[in-house]
Amino acid sequence: MLKFLSKVQIEFNPLNPRTAACMEFLAQCNSRKAKESNPACQVEVKRRIDDHPPQITVTYVNGVVENIDAASTPAQHIRQRILERGQLLETEQMFREAGEPWPVLIPEEELHQTFPGTKPRKAQEKSQ
User: What is the pTM of this model?
Assistant: First the structure.
């Protein structure tokens, strides 16, 4: 998960009952496997004393910063979101290294074409 990130900042008040996602996400970030995937990723923890809701700010390797409301988002959803965006970053990098334009633009007429070898749907078969 950390291999897609350059920085993680976790802010929470330890006395606030809504900090469960922050604590779980922090534990995931501090795991040996996560740290080995990207030792250069900075993980910062800011303990607050006010009533500010728990927040996680992640910076992706391409510089995009995302603020996540950890009071209403479970840690597993945060992790899944990072992995999905990371896969998109990897795909973008592969296209750029191959000299292909990004994003890939598919012409509208190609979206509606049928492909050889695909079976028609049963509903289409019945209507014919």
Answer: 0.74
